Amino acid sequence: MKRCMFVDDSSVIRKVAKRILGGSEMIVIEAASGLDALEMCAADMPDIIVVDGALPDVPAVDLIRRVRAMESPIRPQILISLVELDIASIMRAKRAGAQGYLLKPFNRPQLLERFRTLKIAPDSVVLSNSRKSA
């Protein structure tokens, strides 16, 4: 079962992500701050991490670098979450080790499509959504 961590100081964003992604094939864990996320990653590295690009306590790029520097058998896929398309922020995040970005606020189709393009969406979610759109 995959584990996805949403790191965002907005409880609404974390809850929406959990509602969309949580289920039998993915566990969604929440971190309200960068420091919480680092502690959680050190204890048990998730498979996927979505990092708010504007965390109040730790710059997103620093968080990504620190996660990448951790000793772990799991090398998570990392997305930076932004409120507007900012190519410079996306490039900095990618240089730090992120695979891509997610614009917020997001809805179910947008979030699942981003996870599909990175091949990290749970199979049951991909199947149930492809049936809905067919």
| Overall geometric form | globular
Radius of gyration: 14 Å
Beta fraction of the residues? Answer: 15-25%
Number of strands: 5
| Secondary-structure element order, N to C | EHEHEHEHEHH
What is the end-to-end distance? 27 Å
Instruction: Identify the strand order in the major beta sheet.
Output: 2-1-3-4-5
Q: Mind summarizing the main beta sheet?
A: 5 strands, parallel
Helical segment count: 6
Structural class: alpha/beta
Residue-averaged pLDDT, rounded? 90
Low-confidence stretches: 124-134
Fraction of helical residues: 40-55%
Report on this model:
- By secondary structure, the chain is an alpha/beta fold.
- It has six helices and five strands.
- Strands 2-1-3-4-5 form a five-stranded parallel sheet, with helices on both faces.
- Residues 124-134 have low confidence and may be disordered.
Q: What characteristics describe this protein?
A:
single chain, 134 residues, alpha/beta, five-stranded parallel beta sheet, 6 helices, disordered C terminus
What can be said about this structure in brief?
With 134 residues, the protein is an alpha/beta fold.
Element layout with pairings:
Layout: E1 2-7, H1 11-21, E2 26-31, H2 34-43, E3 48-52, H3 60-69, E4 77-82, H4 87-96, E5 100-103, H5 108-117, H6 123-133
Parallel strand pairs: 1-2, 1-3, 3-4, 4-5
Helix pairs in contact: 2-3
